[in-house]
Amino acid sequence: MADGFLCIKCGQWHDKLPLGWGVAEPIYVAKLTPAERVGRVQIDHGAGVAIIDGKTFIMGLLQIPLRNSERFFTWTLWVQVAEHDMENILANWTNPRRAEMEPTPSILVDYFCDYPECDRLHVWVHHQEPGKRPLLELLPCEHPLYKEQTEGIDDIRVREIAMAMYHPMAARLGDQPWDGVVTPELLFGDMMKLD
Ligand SMILES: [Zn+2]
């Protein structure tokens, strides 16, 4: 896949065509002002865990197969897990056998990219060995993200996603000032490199 692309939204050349993007924070956080966050939000971006108003979230990777390729496109997303499940996850955080844990049920509630609102989509969190982010698996549903997860996407769609992410959210959120989204390089450095 090419390194960059000509963008039909701004008419400029973008040097990077990322094969992954991340949502920086759960939408519950993004909606809060800095003052509102105080005392309500505990978030550890490195570990990828957050507690917001008593709700617990974990960051995971949703991998979408690239058609005609062995590689994946990766969404880094936050999903909500039950409090007792989060306790179990944290109790096993450094357990060398963490990958053998049963998958944890979770829900995705978010806006991102050009997808329709993810209206409480059900997601399995598949735990990996310590140091690796869990993998997310959407349960069957009508949402286009599920279709992409199961059928894969092509390079045209990768460019479409990049355009929606480089020129984010204006259409979706109207005059709200949130973009809530940063590149995976910015967030995770080398951690996001999958190959
Ligand atoms: Zn552009």
What features would you describe in this structure?
Strands 4-5-6-7-3-11 form a 6-stranded mixed beta sheet. A hairpin with an 8-residue loop joins strand 9 (118-126) and strand 10. The protein is 24% helix and 30% strand. With 195 residues, the protein is an alpha+beta fold. It binds zinc ion. Residues 7, 9-10, 12, 14, 163, 166-167 line the site of zinc ion.
Summarize this structure briefly.
The chain has helices spanning 27-30, 34-37, 83-91, 144-151, 155-166, 170-173, 184-188, and strands at 5-6, 13-14, 20-23, 41-44, 49-52, 55-65, 72-81, 104-110, 118-126, 135-138, 181-182. It is α+β, with helices and mostly antiparallel strands.
What topology does this entry show?
Blueprint: E1 5-6, E2 13-14, E3 20-23, H1 27-30, H2 34-37, E4 41-44, E5 49-52, E6 55-65, E7 72-81, H3 83-91, E8 104-110, E9 118-126, E10 135-138, H4 144-151, H5 155-166, H6 170-173, E11 181-182, H7 184-188
The chain binds zinc ion (ZN).
Zinc ion binds next to helix 5.
